[in-house]
Amino acid sequence: MKPMTSTKSTTKPMTFTTSRRTAASVALLALLLPLPLATAGTAFAADTSVTVSGPPAAGPESRRTTVELPRPTGRFAVGREDLHLVDRSRTDPWAGSGPRELMVTMRYPARHDTGRTTRYLTSEEARLLLVDRGLDQVIPVETLTGTRTHDRTGARPAAGRYPLIVLSPGFTTHRSTLTALAEDLASRGYVVASVDHAYESVGTAFPGGRVLTCLACEKVTDEAGYRTVGETRARSVELTRRYVAAFFDQHLGGRPQPVLDGPSADAPEVRFHTP
Question: Is residue 234 situated within a structural domain?
Fold first, then answer.
């Protein structure tokens, strides 16, 4: 009977470790694929599995995990460029000072075998996102920062004309959580702009080493506050769609766009700067 007792006691850590890794994997699925998981049954549902791999569940190295987002299903490779948009004519509604800023990730149909790999999140963005979701004790920061994406910065655009889609993440959420959806759409022949609204996510990196946190979270306490969020985002998305679409039509499609010639009366907040 003693050997049986000994065998039973040695299996407990294995059972505990497996449960912990399973919980971490489920948490990663919810964190990395919030939109596809919520829309199961659509055309994208069959390709939204996250690959989670790591060493056998034994010893301290069992917490090291490699994550790869779903591989895009379209025929194009996916290019990526990050844009920092600044509107100096508008005061940020949440900070009460400084210009209104946006970080926008553009993904587009690209040629294969061009460009270089990109990161999913910075370390501080990953840390803040995990803390906000209560997962900082379950998922290491390195798991998110090391997440493998399929877009490539500096990739050569594929010739052609493509529709523009603007994606805006949920309140408090970083635009990276839309990466799997954006990559898949770009691979299918769309230009996709994913917008991060300053001070409306738990943490977004801006140029100069700045990481802006969610000031809006501290101020939005009632229906009027959420209405302000909606109105602010609607205008930002409208202008992003208008000018980004014009930019790609003119520089990739070769079609002149008068909206890029100078200031417009119906968009006084947009200014043009000549280098």
Answer: yes
Global pTM exceeds 0.70 = no
Give, for all 275 residues of the chain, the pLDDT tens digit.
Answer: 444 333 333 333 333 333 445 445 445 545 555 433 333 222 333 344 455 555 444 444 445 567 788 899 999 999 999 999 888 888 888 888 888 888 999 999 999 999 999 889 999 999 999 998 888 888 899 988 988 899 999 999 999 989 888 888 877 888 998 898 899 999 999 999 999 888 888 999 999 889 999 888 877 666 665 465 555 555 665 666 677 777 767 766 678 888 788 777 777 666 665 54
267 belongs to a structural domain: no
Nearest to 192 by CA among 120, 70, 80, 107: 107
- Closest to 162 measured CA to CA, from 124, 110, 112: 110
Please give the backbone phi and psi of residue 196, each rounded to the nearest 5 degrees, phi first. -110, 125
84 backbone dihedrals φ, ψ, rounded to 5°: -110, 110
Separation of alpha carbons 26 and 18, rounded Å: 12
Structure tokens belonging to residue 13: 């850590």
What is the domain range of residue 110?
A: 2-260
Let me know if residue 200 belongs to a domain: yes
Angle at 98 between CA 96 and CA 103, to 5 degrees: 105
- Name the residue among 199, 254, 204, 243 with its Cα closest to residue 225: 199
CA distance linking residue 23 with residue 138, whole number of Å: 8
The number of distinct structural domains making up the chain is 1
Q: Would 273 be classed as within a structural domain? A: no
